[in-house]
Design brief:
InterPro entries: CheY-like_superfamily (IPR011006), NreC/VraR/RcsB-like_REC (IPR058245), Sig_transdc_resp-reg_C-effctor (IPR016032), Sig_transdc_resp-reg_receiver (IPR001789), Tscrpt_reg_LuxR_C (IPR000792), WalR-like (IPR039420)
Pfam families: GerE, Response_reg
Strand content: 5-15%
GO molecular function, one term: DNA binding
CATH class of the largest domain: Alpha Beta
Order of helices and strands: EHEHEHEHEHEHHHHH
CATH architecture of the largest domain: 3-Layer(aba) Sandwich
Distance between the termini: 28 Å
Number of helices: 10
Protein name: DNA-binding NarL/FixJ family response regulator
Keywords: DNA-binding, Phosphoprotein, Transcription, Transcription regulation
C-alpha cells in the first residue's frame, strides 16, 4: 500500500453515478475520492486545486466532453492518469479516447474490484482495458496480414511509451526527438503492423509480443 492514499477524482454528469462510484471506493485504505465533477470544465478546475493521481472520466457530457477534457488534462497535468468509464464501446469512441492518451478504458458495468485494481494499475503507470474493448481492437486487427517488415528498435521504443499512455509530446521529450519525428515513427509502425491508429498499434504489438 502506498504511503499516502491515491487521490481519485470522479467525472460524470449524472449525480447518481457519481454517488455510486464514490460508494464503491469508500473505506479503501489506499484510495480516497478527493473531488467530483459534473463536466469537463469543472474537472479541469478541480484538477488544478485537488491534484488527483487518477481520474475516472465519463465520455459524453454537456459542455466540454470527456475527450476534450482528457486532452486538456494531459496537456496541463501530464502526471494525472485518466481512465475512461463509460457505457459506450464503439470503435470511434475507443479510438478517440485512446488517441487522447488515456491510461484505461472501462465500461460502467465493470465489477467493483476491477475498478479498484484499474485505479491502482493506472497510478502505477500501467494501462487497463475492459475485456470487450480489448476484443474489439483485436477483432479489428484479425484480418490484417503479418507485417513484412518488423518495427525498428527506435520505433518500438516509441510504441512502448505510447502503450503507457504517453502523448507525442511526452514521447518526444523522453527520447530527445521532435514531435514530427515521433509522428514519422508512428506512421511507419502503422504501416508495418497493418493498422491505422495508436490504440490498434499497441494491441497489435502486444499480440505479436513485440512489446
Amino acid at each position: 500500500m502506498p504511503e499516502h492514499p491515491l487521490r481519485l477524482m470522479i467525472v460524470d454528469d449524472h449525480p447518481v453515478v457519481r454517488d455510486g462510484l464514490r460508494g464503491m471506493f469508500t473505506g479503501l485504505p489506499d484510495i480516497t475520492v478527493v473531488a467530483e465533477a459534473a463536466d469537463g470544465h469543472q474537472a479541469l478546475a478541480l484538477a488544478r486545486s485537488e491534484r488527483p493521481d487518477v481520474v475516472l472520466m465519463d465520455l459524453r457530457m454537456p459542455g466540454l466532453d470527456g475527450v476534450g477534457a482528457i486532452e486538456r488534462l494531459r496537456a496541463d497535468h501530464p502526471d494525472i492518469r485518466v481512465i475512461v468509464l463509460t457505457t459506450y464501446d464503439t470503435d470511434a469512441d475507443v479510438s478517440r479516447a485512446l488517441s487522447a492518451g488515456v491510461a484505461g478504458y472501462l465500461l460502467k458495468d465493470a465489477p467493483r474490484e476491477e475498478l479498484h485494481q484499474a485505479v491502482r494499475t493506472a497510478a502505477a503507470g500501467g494501462r487497463v482495458l475492459s475485456s470487450s474493448i480489448h476484443s474489439l481492437l483485436v477483432d479489428r486487427l484479425a484480418p490484417g496480414p503479418a507485417p513484412a517488415t518488423a518495427p525498428t528498435p527506435r520505433e518500438l521504443e516509441v510504441l512502448r511509451l505510447i502503450a503507457k499512455g504517453a502523448s507525442n509530446k511526452e514521447v518526444a521529450r523522453a527520447l530527445l526527438i521532435s514531435e514530427t519525428t515521433v509522428k514519422t515513427h508512428l506512421k511507419h509502425v502503422f504501416g508495418k503492423l497493418g493498422v491505422d491508429n495508436r490504440a490498434a498499434a499497441v494491441v497489435a504489438a502486444m499480440e505479436r509480443r513485440l512489446i
